Amino acid sequence: MTLKPIHIIGAGLAGSEAAWQIAQMGVPVVLHEMRPVRMTDAHKTQGCAELVCSNSFRSDDMHYNAVGLLHEEMRRCGSLILSEGDKAAVPAGGALAVDRDQFSAGVTEKLTSHPMITVRRDHVDVPPEDWDSVIIATGPLTSPELAHYIQSIGGEEQLAFFDAIAPIVYKESINFDIAWMQSRYDKAGPAGTGSDYINCPMNKDEYLTFITELLLSDKTGFKEWESNTPYFEGCMPVEVMAGRGVDTLRYGPMKPVGLDDPRTGKRPYAVVQLRQDNALGTLYNMVGFQTKMKYAEQSRVFRLIPGLENADFARLGGLHRNTFINSPKLLNETLRMKKMPRLRFAGQITGCEGYVESAAVGLMAGRFAALERLGGAISTPSPTTAMGAILSHITGGGNADTFQPMNVNFGLFPPIDDAVGARGKDKAREKKKLMALRALDAIADWQNKSRLEKAA
Question: Residue 456 has what pLDDT?
């Protein structure tokens, strides 16, 4: 039986991984890459999986770091990106860093030499109607024409062209001897209880010190190709707002109205609010605190906030040029577009952040599309795995109203019972290891199910 090919648009890390997974399952693939016919502002070569920023895939510790766990899951799933990454590795301590040119060349050679993969150098603005299975993996630099096509299906408000990221904190690291739960004026809202926000109070001296440190902190600049990234009033970096006047934040995102500190029974001078960011309730984002401060500075300055002095950040803030869809609204659990099921999305355009995360979503999208083509039942990886945790977050676990790109982190995983006998810092560390061991067992189960479905 001759199978129709699956078309993939974009040969970055996600598209390359998706193509490899599909081909390895015996399904033909046409991989469309517009370079060098049409270059982007960031890419310098026409190679597949070109790394345009850092050469690091971050930590390779599979037991105590979520991205290291993701590496191991992908290796066990036959990932092309991790295989070529390991071959091109350069010394980087506990991180996996690669020689960019060697890595891209290795991925390109594997794809172009695979008998089931056809690489076409062309720009696709609208996927033809006779392409019945398409994976869009065009990343943060999606062409205007294709972006317009996506908007025409999903709605203009569901496609973003930059991300304004506020830091996200693990709830368990917040000091509730100082912080408390309350909504302004105790309003419950349509899905709330009246105690939906975590509030961190400041007196006048604490507030003035905080504003000073915000203004003095080191900031990052825009890359050349991000130079047209806008500052909108609704996503103004917190330090830019602070520069408009000492009380700007106190009358903006840090206003204390409608809130009473239970320790004093009075309204604080200023308040930092955190809002639940995932369905599990393990992660809370700092409302209105998108920023261009350097990462080390964010950790230093934000820990000056009472209640966050020991904050553990699942993600730090930023403002970048990007293209991503509101995946929790637009995609189903197998990454298909609800309004047009022949389309799947993969990689950074889905709202995952990071090279490895993008490739992981490509791996899943590729397998889902191949199983669909082969007529098999599709199973998704358990949310207790790193891949399943990302998938769950972008297809429903994330808050659709505040959805922003997210790296993999243990806050996306379902909680696990405390490690027996662990105390203090070791307790949190051992919980991570237990989560990792649970994930590796679950990813093996997913692998077995995929093989059984393919055989059937």
Answer: 42
254, HSE (Cβ side, Cα atoms, 13 Å): 26
Segments of 128-269 assigned E as strands: 134-136, 159-165, 168-170, 180-181, 197-202
In the block, residue with structure tokens 């509730």: 176
Residues 6+ apart with CB under 8 A from 209: 304
List, for residues 169-209, the tens digit of each pLDDT value: 999 999 999 999 999 889 876 667 888 899 999 999 999 99
Structure-block tokens of residue 84: 């070529």
Domains for the chain: give ranges and CATH numbers: 6-165+321-455 (3.50.50.60), 168-316 (2.40.30)
Supply angle C-alpha 50, 51, 55, rounded to 5: 145
71: helix, strand or coil: helix
- Cβ count near 47 (within 10 Å): 22
CA dist 232 → 128, 213, 291 (Å): 36, 23, 13
Percent of the chain as helix, strand, coil, to the nearest 5:
40, 20, 40
Separation in Å, CA 68 to CA 45, 94, 131, 191: 28, 10, 36, 36
Predicted local confidence at residue 85, as pLDDT: 95
pLDDT of 417 reads 74
Q: Rounding to the nearest 10 degrees, give the CA dihedral for residues 285, 349, 21, 29.
A: 170
295-316 pLDDT tens trace: 999 999 999 999 999 999 999 9
